[in-house]
């Protein structure tokens, strides 16, 4: 049984009622099929009403769900022969970023992604998915290796942001992120990025300079968290819901603004409801992306990446962000 978010309570309660009636029917042999059918119809309508009209803040909650699939989960469902590689060859191995080589549809690729934990112990080990500089340097090492052996790079983005601690800053956190931005911009192999959870600040962008950027329907991608923005703009983190709306950090908004290329449909209620089905949705988009990018020369790949990022943020004459409160 999946844990549920507050706004899902009516759906969960109705689903439990249906299960209760079905169990009662089996135990007592009483035909309640008519009542069950009516409730199932009502459940479908309720799900359409709730999941078809999610607010930005509700999407933020889904993106942060503790059971949301991670990079490791998708590696297991999308790729074969995965070999994880460790270390940045400078300081150490950061478990907040995983990476290695694998096969996709029989072709060799390099996979890199943020990795958070599924429980408290693993979250501590992986620093809650917030990388240190050595994590980004490990990622860059694997990208340059992929370029050397002409392997496409697939990046999964899922982090609140780079770790802001003293030790990370002493080891050059900002330089490591800036170096990744510079080097990724010039990689002479296809780079496909997929935001699978939270895409927060430079910690996300350090794996996000790609030819194609895709984003799961209920993921977020932003320069700062809604709570952080609310604290800065209104001196009150309780305005997070309003900040999420104003910042336009969800996939539908970012698709409209041209920041991402494709919004990947999610399983109703969130990717955690059915990872196998969700992986198939991602698979379809990945296959199309890699097929189109493989038709381009290395010079064309770099030029396409340059043109893509040059267009982001173009002013069209109307205000993109409103600073007014509701």
Automatic annotation (TrEMBL):
Compartments, record wording: Cytoplasm
Similarity section: Belongs to the AccA family.
Pfam families xrefs: ACCA
Keyword Nucleotide-binding: yes
Pathway, per record: Lipid metabolism; malonyl-CoA biosynthesis; malonyl-CoA from acetyl-CoA: step 1/1
Keywords assigned: ATP-binding, Cytoplasm, Fatty acid biosynthesis, Fatty acid metabolism, Lipid biosynthesis, Lipid metabolism, Nucleotide-binding, Transferase
Protein name listed in UniProt: Acetyl-coenzyme A carboxylase carboxyl transferase subunit alpha
Gene from which the chain derives: accA
Subunit structure: Acetyl-CoA carboxylase is a heterohexamer composed of biotin carboxyl carrier protein (AccB), biotin carboxylase (AccC) and two subunits each of ACCase subunit alpha (AccA) and ACCase subunit beta (AccD).
């Amino acid at each position: 049984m999946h844990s549920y978010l507050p706004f899902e309570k009516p759906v969960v309660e109705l689903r439990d009622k249906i299960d209760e009636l079905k169990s009662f029917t089996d135990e007592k042999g009483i035909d309640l099929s008519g009542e069950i059918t009516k409730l199932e119809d009502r459940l479908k309508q309720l799900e359409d009403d709730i999941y078809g009209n999610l607010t930005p803040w509700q999407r933020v909650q889904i993106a942060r769900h503790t059971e949301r699939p991670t990079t490791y989960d998708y590696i297991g469902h999308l790729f074969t022969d995965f070999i994880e590689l460790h270390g940045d060859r400078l300081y150490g191995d950061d478990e907040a970023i995983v990476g290695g080589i694998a096969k996709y549809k029989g072709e060799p690729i390099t996979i890199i992604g943020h990795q958070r934990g599924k429980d408290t112990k693993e979250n501590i080990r992986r620093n809650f998915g917030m990388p240190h500089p050595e994590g980004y340097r490990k990622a860059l090492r694997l990208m340059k290796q992929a370029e050397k052996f002409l392997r496409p790079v697939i990046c999964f983005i899922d982090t609140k942001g780079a770790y802001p601690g003293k030790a990370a800053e002493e080891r050059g956190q900002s330089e490591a992120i800036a170096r990744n931005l510079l080097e990724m911009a010039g990689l002479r192999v296809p780079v496909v990025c997929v935001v699978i959870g939270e895409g927060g600040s430079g910690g996300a962008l350090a794996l996000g300079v790609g030819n194609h950027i895709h984003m799961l329907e209920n993921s977020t991608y932003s320069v700062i968290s809604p709570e952080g923005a609310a604290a800065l703009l209104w001196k009150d983190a309780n305005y997070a819901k309003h900040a999420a709306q104003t910042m336009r950090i969800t996939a539908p908004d970012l698709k409209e603004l041209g920041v991402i290329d494709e919004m990947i449909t999610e399983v109703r209620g969130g990717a955690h409801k059915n990872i196998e089905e969700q992986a198939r949705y991602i698979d379809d988009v990945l296959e199309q992306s890699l097929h189109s990018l493989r038709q381009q020369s290395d010079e064309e790949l770099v030029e396409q990446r340059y043109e893509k990022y040059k267009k982001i943020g173009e002013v069209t004459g109307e205000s993109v962000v409103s600073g007014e409160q509701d």
